[in-house]
Design a protein that fits this description.
By secondary structure, this protein is mainly α. Helix content is 79%, strand content 0%. The chain has 8 helices and no strands. The longest helix has 37 residues. The protein is globular, with a radius of gyration of 20 Å. The model has no long low-confidence stretch (mean pLDDT 84).
Length: 154
C-alpha cells in the first residue's frame, strides 16, 4: 500500500509493471486517487490498522488453538510467523478463495516447522471449515440487521 500513498513510488511502480500496456492503468489510477484521499484521514487509517491487527492476531490464535485438536504442539511464535504468509499466499488470484494454494503452502511451511504433512493439511482444512461456518453464521444474521443499517444511512 505504500506506493499508493507516495506519488513518486506510484509512478515508479506504474512504469515497472507496464500498466499502460496491460490496459489496467486507468483502473489502477482510480484506485490510487481513491486511496490518496485517505492520506488525510490519519485517525481512520490508524483505526483500520488496529482492527486489521486484531483480526490477524485472532486468525493466528484460531490456527493455534485448532492445532491442539490435532495434537500439534508448536510454539505460538511459529503461528505468528507462518499464518500471515499462508494468508498472503491464499490471496493469489488464480484460485477460488485460495483453495489449494492455502493447503499447499500450509503443508510446505508447517512441515518445516516440525509437524507432519497430514497434520498440516488437516489444520488448513479445519481452518477452511471454521471460515465457512463463521461466514454462514454471518450470512444468517445479516438479513435481520441489514434494514437497521440501511435506516441509519438515510
Amino acid at each position: 500500500m505504500t506506493f499508493f500513498f507516495i506519488p513518486p513510488c506510484f509512478e515508479f511502480i506504474n512504469r515497472i509493471f507496464f500498466m499502460q500496456r496491460l490496459g489496467i492503468k486507468e483502473k489502477v489510477a482510480q484506485i490510487y486517487y481513491a486511496t490518496i484521499e485517505y492520506r488525510k484521514e490519519r485517525r481512520l487509517l490508524l483505526n483500520v490498522f488496529l482492527i486489521s491487527l486484531l483480526f490477524q492476531t485472532m486468525l493466528v490464535l484460531v490456527y493455534y488453538f485448532l492445532s491442539f485438536s490435532l495434537h500439534v504442539h508448536l510454539s505460538v511464535g511459529y503461528f505468528f510467523l507462518l499464518v500471515p504468509m499462508i494468508s498472503a499466499a491464499a490471496l493469489a488470484p488464480f484460485s477460488l478463495n485460495g483453495l489449494g494454494i492455502r493447503e499447499g503452502v500450509s503443508v510446505l511451511l508447517f512441515s518445516r516447522a516440525g509437524i507432519t504433512d497430514a497434520q498440516a493439511l488437516s489444520l488448513s482444512l479445519l481452518m477452511l471449515v471454521v471460515g465457512i461456518l463463521t461466514g454462514l453464521i454471518g450470512g444468517l444474521i445479516y438479513p435481520f440487521f441489514r434494514s437497521e443499517v440501511l435506516k441509519k444511512k438515510e
